[in-house]
Write a structure and sequence with these properties.
Shape: globular
Structural class: alpha/beta
Number of strands: 16
Helix content: 25-40%
Low-confidence stretches: 22-72, 124-136, 216-232
CATH superfamily of the largest domain: SGNH hydrolase
Strand order of the largest sheet: 12-16-15-14-13
Number of domains: 3
Number of helices: 15
Radius of gyration: 32 Å
Strand content: 5-15%
């Protein structure tokens, strides 16, 4: 009898336990249907765990690192079309040149083929929840590589920053003729942009008038407001000087502007780093210890031309430049107070100081060797652009040089990226390009010393005998003279 009672109680207990378990499962299923992601993200707790359950923290929108993030593929393919340049493709997809070159090993940045497939690394974009109208209806036109944000409504105004394609803009004003728009960039910077390069759904007529277009004088020489993506093919080098290109009517306009400012046609400046500072660079012509050999007929006139006037402390070849120093980057030459303390004003950059004393019509410029190590490509482009614009604004023709290979440093693999930037800037501003990198390619060890950075030279760096032209510095002197001669014959004469 006792056993039967115990059995009855046991059955009742098991039935009750089963009913309770079923009820729990039903409730769990109901809430899981309502919010499965919340339910299943709750940590499970074992029956032996005596610690209290962890507190649930609800992340606010400002503290969530992944809120609103839209996953994107790691890369996608792009097929090269006519007119494409690597510079333009990078700008089109808002990535760096370095990223494209890294993703496409062995690519030649200067020789893209129509139909060639490139791997484009995808960038992860964060989706905004509900953008305000002024963030979405106005943006930089997608067909330009960069748009300059200026301090005022004129191409003569200082450039504040560069805006990439599709950058959202808040339009706050316009000029009376609506040719210029006053905008606020995403970082809060206010300035003026050319209206032709802005795409907007706003009716510009209802935007308040906040400025007046200022007309650029005929003698002013300024770079274009925007850089077209569909750039023209690179200018062809002459058969006579295969490493010199881009000597065009733009150089003539710059020269005429500078002549009105008092610049001297028979004087040039040297701008750069240790490779420019070197006594083996051009100095032999200045002290009249040179031999042009087979180049006598072509180059002796330009040597004599630049020997006739004093730049500052000597003729242009032997003059001590105030805008060249060992270890300098492009930014070093434009930094106020960074020049010779005995000659330059505290608020004056070395580059401006050099131009003030020398008043040249041409500047031989090479920066990048010290920028390659650690400098972001975007910063280098911006710094070299500033060097070019300061030079042009003073009526001086910038002849910009590519940099030599670097076999002695791990960062040497970045040299093609920096040279691509240099070439793109030369094309954008339509100024002479001196392709020193290409001239070094056939030389033993690329014409570099054992450090894999600096050009080799002998006691005869200004003697153009065939056996001397295997040295990197002799080749630099030859191509420098060819650059000066091309400008002199086609622009200055």
């Amino acid at each position: 009898m006792k056993d039967r009672s115990q059995l009855t109680l046991l059955i009742i207990f098991e039935v009750s336990a089963c009913a309770l378990l079923c009820a729990i499962i039903s409730v769990v299923g109901f809430y899981a249907t309502l919010a499965p992601e919340s339910f299943f993200s709750t940590p499970t707790i074992s029956v032996t765990n005596t610690q209290p359950p962890p507190k649930v923290v609800v992340a606010s929108p400002t503290t969530s690192a992944t809120a609103g993030r839209t996953p994107t593929p790691s890369h996608f393919n792009y097929k090269v079309v006519a007119g494409d340049t690597l510079w333009g493709i990078a700008a089109k997809f808002n990535i760096t040149l370095e990223a494209i070159i890294t993703a496409n090993p062995g690519i030649n940045p200067d020789k893209l083929l129509v139909g060639q497939t490139l791997i484009i690394p995808a960038t992860e974009r964060v989706a905004e929840s509900t953008p305000s109208p002024d963030q979405t209806v106005s943006f930089v036109a997608p067909e330009v590589a960069a748009l300059r944000l200026r301090r005022g409504p004129s191409e003569a105004e200082t450039v504040i920053m560069m805006l990439t394609p599709l950058t959202p803009l808040k339009i706050v004003g316009r000029t009376r003729d609506s040719l210029w728009l006053e905008v606020i960039a995403p970082n809060g910077q206010k300035g003026w942009v050319s209206a032709q390069w802005v795409r907007t759904q706003l009716n510009i007529a209802f935007v308040p008038e906040t400025g007046q277009t200022r007309v650029v004088t005929a003698t002013s020489v300024t770079p274009p407001t925007a850089v077209a993506l569909a750039t023209a093919p690179p200018p062809q080098s002459s058969e006579k000087y295969p490493f010199i290109s881009g000597v065009s009517d733009t150089s003539r306009q710059i020269f005429l502007s500078g002549r009105g400012l008092g610049n001297r046609a028979d004087v040039f400046s040297k701008v750069g780093d240790s490779i420019t500072v070197s006594g083996a660079f051009l100095n032999g012509f200045g002290i009249k210890q040179y031999n042009l050999r087979s180049y006598q007929q072509d180059l002796s006139p330009v040597v004599n031309y630049y020997l006739q006037d004093i730049a500052r402390d000597s003729n242009s070849f032997a003059n001590t430049s105030l805008a060249a120093e060992v270890g300098w980057s492009a930014h070093s030459s434009t930094t106020p107070g960074n020049g010779d303390k005995t000659l330059c004003a505290p608020t004056e950059s070395p580059l401006v100081c050099e131009y003030r004393y020398v008043r040249p019509s041409v500047a031989l410029i090479m920066f990048g060797t010290n920028d390659v190590t650690g400098m972001a490509t975007g910063n280098f482009e911006r710094n070299l652009r500033q060097v070019i614009e300061i030079t042009i604004q003073r009526g001086i023709i910038p002849v910009i040089s590519t940099i030599p290979p670097m076999t002695g440093r791990p960062d040497g693999a970045r040299v093609p990226v920096f040279n691509t930037i240099i070439k793109a800037l030369a094309r954008e501003y339509d100024i002479p390009l001196w392709d020193y990198w290409a001239a070094l390619q056939p030389l033993p060890s690329y014409g570099l010393t054992l450090d894999g950075v600096h050009p080799t030279y002998s006691s005869y760096s200004t003697d153009f005998a065939p056996e001397n032209l295997k040295y990197g510095m002799t080749t630099r002197n030859l191509t420098a003279l060819q650059a000066l001669d091309a400008v002199w014959r086609n622009v200055l004469k």
